[in-house]
Protein: Peptide deformylase
Organism: Peribacillus faecalis
Amino acid sequence: MAVLPIVEYPNDILERKCETVTVFDKKLAKLLDNMYDTMIEHDGVGLAAPQVNVAKRIAIVEIDEETGTLEMINPKILQMKGSQTDVEGCLSFPGLYGEVERADYVKVEAQDRKGNTYIVEAEDFFARAIMHEIDHLEGVLFTTKVTRYIDEAELEGFEEE
């Protein structure tokens, strides 16, 4: 496996709608494995393909060992409900954090690395991470949804809660 370079803002690929994946092969599996290694190396909880300079509808999320690694290919949001506001950051915006309002629940249809379709339901932080990564695939950056930016000192207070 390999750790890939993270694309940082500003870069056009981050604001481009990604292409649908149509080929499910060893190259895709290798990209997913490399994206996972990259996310872990950078202490992320999610990573979308455009963040590693690939304009395809591919994203991964892993918030903890209990939920495991979620690989989403061609994800579509089927349902959202509720509301939550919390601090978000992004590997493509190092050192930048802000409060973002998102749904508290999300239901998503996606494909796995073999092309099999599945449905996942998530709440709270898991839902937030999924929606953040799907936004990347639409060319939507979290900075467009920030209601208030958080500085480093204030961020430490959030982490202690």
